[in-house]
Amino acid sequence: MTTPLADRFGRVATDLRVSLTDRCNLRCNYCMPAEGLDWLPTEQTLTDDEIVRLITIGVKRLGIREVRFTGGEPLLRRGLVDIVSRTHALGVETSLTTNALGLSRTAQALADAGLDRINASIDSVRPETFATITRRDRLKDVVAGLEAAKAAGLGPIKLNAVLLRGTNDDQAAELLRWSIEHGYELRFIEQMPLDAQHDWSRAAMVTADEIFDQLSAEFALTPHGEPRGSAPAELFDVDGGPATVGIIASVTRPFCGDCDRVRLTADGQVRNCLFAREESDLRAALRSGATDGEIAERWVIAMLGKRAGHGIDDVTFLQPDRPMSAIGG
Ligand code: SAM
Ligand code: SF4
To answer: Quick one: which of 34, 220, 245, 315 has the fewest CB in 10 Å?
Structure first.
């Protein structure tokens, strides 16, 4: 029998985001500083077996139906293919959010291990702008990684892009045209206050409405027919379809009421929300010999503290201590 991961507002989490590492080989300037961060020490990071045990508890006891691996950069995790394979064996959907660096080497192995699809980040298709944002001149490698993922059948491949004022905010249409030409589904994400440097400002953020207006100058966007459900993106048909574009208005039109997500950090903390200020320590439970039932119980209790919304607009809003890269985006 499974116990649903329900909160006090009637939402049930079935989508588990698992961060496999807080490390990254890019330095996107809206995510982390040029020098990187103080990475988690190895002994605090869950082992592959510990991760798979927690995922198994989530699936077998708590109704998790979909597992997305993220980070930091999940491709940096040595045991990734094995973790994917063992998760796939549990009978759930598996996906990966990645910057696609190095994916040209691992895409086929990941597909063979049962990975269903990937989401990849690409904020510009101009090499100079890409290098300015990520502080690494690696656009070519990202593009090669995406091609390899497509060839391995890891589709539909969704691309995530963040627009930054004064850097790439004039490139929305160009990114969309490129994505359509290459057979990728592009989604723009509003920049959120989750950067390690705490540089985010509401005033500087490029809003979903601005993105829509910019795209509409070059494409006819019409609401896509299917209901959105718990998906964060508002989806539009481009020039009558079949191509689509998504806009994720996390800040200006929050979708917290439909949230079905729960997060596990690389050091074994359950977070009931990206913006949660509290975490529940499953690693301590695991390492002190707790049974699967006891861990499941702790996880269920962690969900009861989930707030109704992220509250970015509240005067009392406080950015969480962990940046996005250490939570798992
Ligand atoms: N490294 C992988 C990647 O970039 O796809 C996975 C982790 S990354 C934290 C996941 C997603 O979060 C990326 O699409 C990235 O663009 C996005 N992201 C990071 N910081 C963000 C922020 N402050 N606001 C909005 N999205 C952000
Ligand atoms: Fe790395 Fe992803 Fe953050 Fe960019 S957004 S620095 S690729 S974790």
So the answer is: 315
89: left (phi over 0), alpha (psi -120 to 50) or beta: alpha
Q: Indicate if the pLDDT at residue 225 is higher than 90.
A: no
Q: Is the pTM of this model over 0.85?
A: yes
Q: What is the span of the domain harbouring residue 218?
A: 5-327
Please name which of 84, 87, 85 lies closest in space to residue 55, comparing C-alpha atoms. 87
Which atom of ligand 2 is nearest the CA belonging to 31?
3
Q: How far apart are CA 151 and CA 287, in angstroms?
A: 41
161: which strand partners?
A: 188
- What is the four-CA torsion angle of 294, 298, 300, 302, rounded to 10 degrees? 180
CA of 79 from ligand 1 middle (Å) equals 22
Ligand number nearest CA of 27 is: 2
Structural domain count, the chain = 1
Q: What is the rounded CA–CA span in Å between residue 162 and residue 123? A: 6
pLDDT tens sequence across 144-159: 999 999 999 999 999 9
Q: What tokens were used for 270?
A: 């359950």
> Would you place residue 226 in the very low, low, confident or very high pLDDT band (cuts 50, 70, 90)?
confident
Residues touching ligand 2 (Cβ under 6 Å) are 24, 26-28, 31-32, 71-73, 99, 121, 325
For residue 240, the domain's CATH number is 3.20.20.70
Q: What is the pLDDT of residue 228?
A: 74
Q: Which of 22, 69, 97 to mutate to test the pocket of ligand 1 (most atoms within 8 A of CB)?
A: 97
Give me ligand 2 centre to Cα 25, in Å.
Answer: 8
